[in-house]
Amino acid sequence: MRSAFLPFSIPCLGEEEIAEVTDSLRSGWITTGPKVKRFEEAFKAYVDARFAVPLSSATAGLHLSFLGLKLQPGDEVITTPMTFAATVAMIVQAGGCPVLADIEPGSLNLSVAEVEKRITPRTRAIVPVHFAGQPCDLDPIISLAQQHGLRVIEDAAHAVGTEYRGRRIGSFPTVSVFSFHPIKNITTGEGGMVCTDDEEFAEELSLMKFHGMNREAWKRYEASGTPNYDIVLPGFKYNMMDLQAALGIHQLRKLDDFITKRTDLAAFYNRELAGLDAVITPGAVIYPHRHAWHLYTPLIKVEQLTIDRDRFMAELKSRNIGSGLHFKAVHHHPWYRDYFKLPTGFLPVADYASDRILSLPLFPTMTRADAADVVAAVSDIITAFRR
Ligand SMILES: *Cc1c(COP(=O)(O)O)cnc(C)c1O
Question: Cβ contacts of residue 178 below 8 Å, gap of 6+?
Fold first, then answer.
């Protein structure tokens, strides 16, 4: 057994990030300013987006994007149950009715056929989540949306660096919302970015993110600026700080290398776990793509064991292996269970995954030896608790 605990995720921050933050601290300008602008430009170029709006989190990005839909009471937004609660919570907070469509077995991404079945005259938008960093099938989702006059808002929290048919997530004719939370592929501490090809949408988001103010504060305090401003709509306080962007500027440069390392570890897991019949390794989509491997999420066939998934995670922990839960399906959480009141068996694929999924350790500075320890622990637990 391992002597030191292996966490499920650790952010990879180096001397470059530390120096850049120190530079901001010494400069006298720590909130939204030139570094946020630099990060915005670099991110926009990396994903090949027309417009990018830096924010305090992906949750803020989802909130503003859904508010941008100007939902009327009863308006529906279709999304996946296999996501973090923020996706669905922000639909509710923007005044919409979330509608859950089932997922594909294998990739655990939103099923396009299931989305189509859920479209009604009240549907306004489709919200795919690129689960674990593997892209949803965007072409049929976008054409379905065009056919019915709907918007596509991608929850791209897992998808920084993900590619679909040769193009990066963020470059499609949609709105895409990225996260830089510490467990995501790159981090700014907390932070998010919304990318879109829609200039009007991007401008409205920019206003909403900072009090509805018609010019950015840091420009007002520049020598050439004027301290006056106008409030043109009631906005929020969702701006990203220079302290956060200082991390992002350097994290973004390291992203491709991070993804290469994650991909190598995921391939090792796939190979080593394939021999265990109580484990279903993550399924790959068949269209051309680059998986960003934000998470490595096998399913444990608990029906073959005498313990459930939660106990399996506790057993991993007792063997000094951390794990994560991404995700317990949204409709299994108390508030949403009461809200949706779905009949049992309504979302069978999500229900199956929800009771069996866990996230194994995966981060760029992890070694193959660490991954081998994880595989040994998984195998040991299966042997110990086989039915
Ligand atoms: C992390 C995550 C979010 C929220 O991101 P924050 O930046 O923490 O607000 C939203 N959706 C999904 C699928 C996530 O994994």
Answer: 43, 58, 61, 156, 157, 159, 160, 170, 192, 193, 194, 195
Is 171 close to ligand 1, i.e. is its CB under 6 Å away?
no
* Domains contained in the chain, CATH given: 15-252 (3.40.640.10), 255-384 (3.90.1150.10)
Question: Is residue 219 pLDDT above 90, yes or no?
Answer: no
pLDDT of residue 214: 80
Token look-up 């004719």 returns 173
E-assigned strand segments in the chain: 51-55, 76-79, 97-100, 123-127, 151-155, 163-164, 167-168, 175-179, 192-196, 279-280, 289-290, 299-300
Q: Which of 130, 155, 162 to mutate to test the pocket of ligand 1 (most atoms within 8 A of CB)?
A: 155
| HSE-CB for 17 with a 13 A CA cutoff | 18
CA of 182 to the centre of ligand 1 (A): 10
DSSP 333: S
Q: Decide whether any atom of ligand 1 lies within 6 Å of the 186 Cβ.
A: no
Tens digits of per-residue pLDDT, 112-165? 999 999 999 999 999 999 999 999 999 999 999 999 999 999 999 999 999 999
Residues forming the active site:
184
- pLDDT tens-place string over residues 168-217: 999 999 999 999 999 999 999 999 999 999 999 999 999 999 999 986 65
For 15, phi then psi, to 5°, come to: -60, -30
d(CA 381, CA 371): 16
Query: Residue 228: its pLDDT value, please?
Result: 80
How many angstroms separate the alpha carbon of residue 79 from the centre of ligand 1? 14
Q: Is 206 in the pocket of ligand 1 (CB under 6 A)?
A: no
Please indicate whether residue 196, judged by its CB atom, sits closer than 6 Å to ligand 1.
no
Full-model pTM:
0.97
Nearest CA to ligand 1 atom 2: 157
Strands (E), 51-174: 51-55, 76-79, 97-100, 123-127, 151-155, 163-164, 167-168
| Tens-place pLDDT, residues 298-322 | 999 999 999 999 999 999 999 999 9
Count CB neighbours of 97 within 10 A. Answer: 18
Residues 355/348, Cβ–Cβ less than 8 Å: no
Asked whether 59 lines ligand 1 (CB < 6 A), one says yes
